[in-house]
Design brief:
Shape of chain A: globular
Distance between the termini of chain A: 48 Å
Helix content of chain A: 40-55%
Number of strands of chain A: 8
Oligomer: homodimer
Order of helices and strands of chain A: HHEHHHHHHEHEEHEHEEHEH
Chain lengths: 331, 331
């Protein structure tokens, strides 16, 4: 009986092993055209995972960090979190009658984006503060979860979670299959990403690093809650990204992926460590399938990082040239 | 040939599978006496890992958090990090001639612990600030790594990393084998623990949460560094623990392990969530093999948590009764 049992285990396992080998032989990055970008990625992964090789990196140290907006999903015409904040203004308007007369809230309610834009970054921060605080972490999570399951992109009419980049999903999966720990390190709010990042990117909440509000532990009706205060605890952007990485990960990444000057310091910090390092920028060059922008963009401006990429040895992905498909629904 | 190959895979796999079954049959917690504590642990782990069971928790949500001082390693007669800070005062004294006349530094240099104690908590914070800041994160890591590899406990003369609790090491391993993600959530400095936590506890740097100094990204001689400032960014103790957990993990743990009132809120936060929850306190009751202390102790005071443990359903480990061995060298 034991023998028969073992045989079944054998057959099942052999099949599984066989499938595994077959899967490995297929291209792990099918949505990437054969280009210098793809070659650079595969070469790097191959050398750091080659046991006994000069560039071998133990699994525990294979940290890869990914920006989110413009690197893993689309960020045009406005950051998704800004669209969320605008929808929150509308949802909360009845509780704030003064907003009808008060910019930038009035602009959001009237659909007058010029008025909102005129309020500048300060106006945007005002909107974020008014719509993102005062609730508990669990209440906020529910709000995000509900919103992201129905909200749609203004021009494509797709769910925002459908507007993730297929080649980057493949890259995340490929790296994890090669023993990497994949982290999101975004300028966006960490509590805005955690509710869906595992489902969409396969990145668990504890591997999402982002900007964050101050939270306070207190008791409400005898039950403990974490209250979200209208204070910023960390701006995880620019020089704040290596700080966020240090706080949350405690180890310098060996690979970093971004798309804007907000990712400059993350790539610089990552690629200036000892041993094999990899930096990659997604350059938005595809006006037809996505958007084309860099230096002049009001979102995701890419200037210094693009200028210095060649001397720093960073790989620049040309979306139009390098990616067969942009979104999963185009596969 | 393929058949032969498959057969080999079968034999190897069958052997491995057989070994796995055998290992599972042995006691995963051999240093725990059969007691209500051990039963409570095993029962909890069994029910949350039973697929299809009413209390099943998916692997991704199996978060377990462990305090460090007094929960995973000894904290008497002073916190290990305080011993480290005192040694840093001695190492840095030649650069600070004024310390010879200035308390609490003079007390440390003269070995006059009464004078140090007289300076109170404020004095201790002064010592920590003076010895823990002004260097880069990498410099500090090297200092910790060097110190921990040679510094010894004042009475046992053992390396501090030998004074970890064997039953807790087994518990960490057992939980990870059951698909748990094990985190350290300590009032101690995160940068003091990360350099050795993976080697000693099997807990990678990104799974260590602790108090932390503010760090700043800047360039030194053209190379980027993270500079440690003499400012506290988070006190990860008491009500700060759920905050640190939220920042770093983003999910409420389902199990938490502590030993003092500094862990009260972590256990409260953990065990007041929906679904199966587990809270455990290590009660230091063994004056012979370790130390016996709770309410009156100047370190690791355990008052409220001990009082409320029964009504909150927290398991209280009686070290003397429940643990066969305390340290690995007593196995």
């Amino acid at each position: 009986m034991l023998k028969v049992g073992t045989l079944w285990v054998c057959l099942i396992t052999a099949c599984a092993t066989g499938c595994g080998v077959a899967a490995q032989a297929t291209d792990p990055l099918p949505s990437w055209n054969d280009s210098t970008s793809k070659t650079a990625i595969v070469d790097f992964v191959t050398k750091v995972t080659q046991e006994g090789g000069a560039d071998f990196v133990p699994g525990s140290e294979r940290i890869a960090t990914f920006d989110n907006d413009g690197t893993l999903w689309a960020e045009q015409p406005v950051y998704v979190q800004v669209a969320f904040a605008f929808d929150r203004v509308k949802a909360l308007a009845s509780q704030h009658p003064a907003w009808k007369q008060q910019q930038p809230f009035k602009g959001v309610l009237d659909g007058d984006m010029k008025a909102v834009a005129a309020a500048g970054e300060r106006g945007l921060l005002e909107i974020i503060a008014a719509t993102h605080a005062g609730n508990t972490t669990e209440e906020f999570e529910t709000i995000v979860r509900d919103w992201i399951s129905t909200a749609r992109h203004p021009t494509t009419k797709r769910l925002y979670t459908e507007m993730v980049y297929q080649p980057m999903l493949e890259l995340l999966t490929y790296l994890r299959a090669k023993g990497f720990k994949t982290f999101i390190v975004s300028g966006g709010g960490v509590e805005f990403m955690r509710p869906w990042a595992e489902r969409v990117y396969g990145v668990a909440p504890e591997r999402v690093v982002g900007s964050r509000a101050t939270v306070k532990y207190e008791r409400r009706e005898g039950r403990p809650v974490l209250l979200r205060l209208p204070e910023t605890d960390l701006v995880n952007d620019g020089a704040g990204k290596p700080v966020g990485i240090h706080q949350a990960i405690g180890r310098r990444p060996i690979a970093a992926f971004g798309n804007s000057d907000g990712d400059f310091e993350m790539l610089e910090w990552t690629t200036s460590g000892r041993g094999p390092r990899f930096g990659l920028l997604v350059h938005h060059t595809d006006a037809k399938r996505e958007w084309a922008y860099d230096r002049e963009s009001h979102i995701g401006a890419l200037i210094r990082a693009l200028d210095e990429a060649p001397t720093r040895g960073w790989t620049v992905v040309d979306m139009q040239r390098d990616w067969k498909a942009i979104y999963p629904f185009q596969k």
